[in-house]
Design goal:
35% of the residues lie in helices and 17% in strands. The protein is α/β, with parallel strands linked by helices and 272 residues long. It has one domain: TIM Barrel (Alpha-Beta Barrel), CATH 3.20.20.190. Strand 1, helix 3 and strand 2 form a beta-alpha-beta unit. The chain starts with a helix and ends in a 7-residue tail after the last strand.
């Protein structure tokens, strides 16, 4: 019996070490908390404002909203703002961001509007530190080159930023190469989705078992999947901020406000 208790205690200790985040920067995180983040900008199909467009970011700024956005690396090493790996849903053409040059991408239009895929540098210049930016780094593989190109742009930017990624390799890259930039681990019930990715990798990220390697300052988790022991322990034991996404109605938004720290929303109007 004693041996069993010792083994269980060791396993529990190891688990708590594996999910341990960086809980030493709560003070630095404070300016980002209790904020509303416009998911991919304040986009609206009714107003013909596409997601991740300059128009969507303009609307967010006009409403004093923090901005969540997504970035990819193009074939010619440009960082662009776009969510999907493929172009078909938003631009109605075949192909991927990673296999396209920016010259090829700039001629495309977003969701049938006059808006085009923006360069990340143009978005940084436009926002100019007026609201916090929550930047999702898209890393479709183990190639971390996008991290380096992103960091070069962020080093010229004077404004509040957070970096986050589903890919723990990217979060760890920033821990190792830019520890001053606040970083977050994105996750959800990944074992139920993304079958193209290795199951074990999805399991580890879903349960925040990569925290010991990438030391996130916050966790960004899908609101409907937050009944997860790792999320609960990061919030209540380690006391680091939890961002939740994507809040698509006032009821879910109000629930998030009562329990969590950062609110990534879209698809409904709210008074700021």
């Amino acid at each position: 019996m004693l041996q069993i208790l010792i083994v269980l205690s060791l396993l529990l200790t190891f688990y708590l070490i594996m999910i341990m985040p960086n809980f030493l920067r709560r003070k630095e995180m404070k300016p980002f908390l209790q904020r509303d983040y416009a998911h991919r900008g304040l986009h609206s199909a009714d107003k013909l404002i596409p997601e991740n467009s300059m128009a969507a970011f303009r609307e967010a700024l006009n409403n004093n909203l923090a901005i969540e956005l997504d970035i990819h690396l193009t074939r010619d090493n440009q960082i662009v703002v776009f969510h999907d790996e493929t172009l078909d849903r938003i631009c109605h053409v075949p192909g991927t961001i990673e296999n396209s040059s920016y010259e090829e991408l700039r001629s495309l239009r977003l969701q049938g509007t006059s808006e085009h895929i923006p360069l990340f540098s143009d978005v940084l210049n436009y926002v100019n530190g007026r609201v916090p930016l929550l930047i999702e780094l898209k890393l479709p593989s183990t190639d971390t080159r996008p991290c380096n190109y992103t960091l070069k742009l962020l080093r010229t930017y004077n404004g509040p930023v957070l970096i986050q990624s589903f890919n723990s390799l990217g979060v760890r890259w920033f821990f190792k190469n830019a520890p001053d930039i606040l970083r977050g681990q994105l996750s959800s019930s990944l074992t139920k989705t993304n079958p193209e990715s290795p199951y074990l990798a999805r399991f580890f990220v879903q349960h925040l078992l990569t925290n010991m390697f990438c030391h996130p300052d916050f966790i960004s988790y899908k609101m409907t999947d937050t009944s997860n022991l790792g999320v609960w322990l990061n919030q209540h034991l380690y006391r680091i901020p939890i961002a939740v996404w994507t809040l698509r109605n006032p009821k879910t938004y109000n629930q998030a406000q009562q329990k969590y720290d950062m609110y990534i929303f879209e698809g409904f109007s709210k008074k700021i």
